[in-house]
């Protein structure tokens, strides 16, 4: 009989089939390093249920820990924990699947079932964010082989100190009376295509800085946004003083280390694709590396989740729908009303308005709703003169000159 481990999550106890009784008799109580989508945590597996859920290991780690386990056992255990990751995400209202669905390995017998869509297994992405997330998981796996985590850790030890991203936004807000501007260096997007043909990221970043931007956001996704980590590195190396946000789709802690080695001062964490535990872990890791973390939400449920996580200073409200990609800036006001707004004020969080901001009226609207910073890309990057684009966005020159 298989051992079922009850796991406490989001007010539920989810049964997770971890180790069969026969396998447990072979290995006894062992420490297994497991990894769900790269999030490592050590826990002791025994016949008693652990107080925290276990994390899936890379296969090499599992082989070392289990010893006698067959390759079939390992495939089953890895698949089970992948499925547990899906169950946990579903319990927290996360609609974006991290990986394409896969059938259970031969010989599996357990409680997990594939998530169904209209009675069938949905083996294609349901929206663009899910497509990006699936591709990112594969991309990161390849990049990890070229840049091992141990090498990144050594590089981080020798990296210069980070700049104060949160402090820069607060200072800009106090200096100008407007929300602090995070100006985005972005060549393209899936919804709008190429935004600027003659795209020089360093030149644009320098113009943003002259125009009064408090911080910069640099797209590092190449396939969908025509960005890249080399652009982030080039901007930092060019002597730009603004703190830099690495605008990446983070699905693995490895990306946090990599961003740090390329000159990032902050990273983006998207609640729509990360569980509460993952956000908590990545927040702690970011802080350890000296990075700020902008945690992005799209709806009320995500906002409620994020407000229940300790240590968050920056909350981004994306006004773009994940399903339709339509933009509605009233989403910012809706998410900052009532109890959510009260908690944000009480915790002195900085709320960043994102997407759909093109005019001084738009800026005034989200500022009245409670934002202290805005992240803007399209409306200024498309301008021939980004400095004038910033002045036009705010209705006045916000530079210090």
Automatic annotation (TrEMBL):
Keyword hit for Nucleotidyltransferase: no
SUPFAM superfamilies noted in UniProt: Ribulose-phoshate binding barrel
MF annotations from Gene Ontology: indole-3-glycerol-phosphate synthase activity; phosphoribosylanthranilate isomerase activity
Keyword Lyase: yes
Any one Gene Ontology BP term: L-tryptophan biosynthetic process
UniProt domain Indole-3-glycerol phosphate synthase: residue ranges: 129-391
CDD domains attached to this UniProt entry: IGPS (cd00331)
E.C. code: 4.1.1.48
Pfam families: IGPS
Catalysed conversion reaction: 1-(2-carboxyphenylamino)-1-deoxy-D-ribulose 5-phosphate + H(+) = (1S,2R)-1-C-(indol-3-yl)glycerol 3-phosphate + CO2 + H2O
Enzyme class: lyase
Listed pathway(s): Amino-acid biosynthesis; L-tryptophan biosynthesis; L-tryptophan from chorismate: step 4/5
Protein keywords: Amino-acid biosynthesis, Aromatic amino acid biosynthesis, Decarboxylase, Lyase, Tryptophan biosynthesis
Gene3D superfamilies for this protein: Aldolase class I (3.20.20.70)
InterPro entries in the cross-refs: Aldolase_TIM, Indole-3-glycerol_P_synth, Indole-3-glycerol_P_synth_dom, Indole-3-GlycerolPSynthase_CS, RibuloseP-bd_barrel
Protein name: indole-3-glycerol-phosphate synthase
Native species: Brassica oleracea var. oleracea
């Amino acid at each position: 009989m298989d051992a079922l481990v009850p796991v406490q999550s989001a007010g539920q106890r989810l049964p997770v089939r971890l180790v069969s009784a026969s396998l447990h008799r072979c290995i006894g109580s062992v420490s297994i390093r497991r990894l769900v989508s790269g999030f490592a945590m050590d826990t002791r597996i025994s016949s008693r249920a652990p107080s925290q859920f276990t994390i899936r290991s890379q296969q090499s780690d599992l082989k070392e820990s289990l010893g006698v386990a067959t390759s079939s056992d390992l495939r089953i255990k890895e698949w089970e924990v992948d499925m547990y990751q899906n169950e946990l995400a579903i319990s927290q209202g996360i609609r974006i699947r991290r990986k394409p669905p896969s059938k259970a390995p031969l010989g599996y017998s357990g409680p997990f079932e594939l998530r169904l869509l209209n009675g069938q297994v949905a083996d294609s992405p349901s929206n663009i964010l899910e497509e990006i997330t699936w591709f990112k998981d594969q991309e990161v796996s390849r990049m990890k082989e070229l840049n091992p985590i141990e090498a990144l850790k050594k590089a981080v030890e020798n990296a210069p100190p980070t700049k104060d991203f949160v402090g820069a936004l607060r200072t800009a807000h106090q200096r100008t009376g407007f929300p602090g501007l995070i100006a985005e260096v972005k060549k393209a997007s899936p919804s709008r295509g190429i935004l600027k043909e003659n795209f020089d990221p360093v030149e644009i970043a320098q113009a943003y800085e002259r125009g009064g931007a408090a911080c910069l956001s640099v797209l590092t996704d190449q396939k969908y946004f025509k960005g890249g980590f080399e652009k982030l590195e080039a901007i930092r190396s060019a002597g730009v003083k603004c703190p830099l946000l690495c605008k990446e789709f983070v699905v693995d802690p490895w990306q946090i280390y990599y961003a740090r080695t390329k000159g990032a001062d902050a990273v983006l964490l998207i609640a729509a694709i990360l569980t509460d535990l993952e956000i908590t872990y990545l927040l702690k890791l970011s802080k350890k590396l000296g990075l700020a973390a902008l945690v992005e939400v799209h709806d009320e449920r995500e906002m409620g989740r994020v407000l229940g996580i300790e240590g968050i200073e920056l909350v981004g409200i994306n006004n773009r729908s994940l399903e339709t990609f339509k933009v509605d800036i009233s989403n910012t006001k809706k998410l900052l009303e009532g109890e959510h707004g009260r908690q944000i004020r009480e915790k002195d969080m900085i709320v960043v308005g994102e997407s759909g901001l093109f005019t001084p009226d738009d800026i005034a609207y989200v500022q009245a709703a409670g934002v202290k910073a805005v992240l803007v890309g399209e409306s200024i990057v498309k301008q021939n003169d980004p400095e004038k684009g910033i002045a036009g966005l705010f209705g006045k020159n916000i530079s210090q000159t």
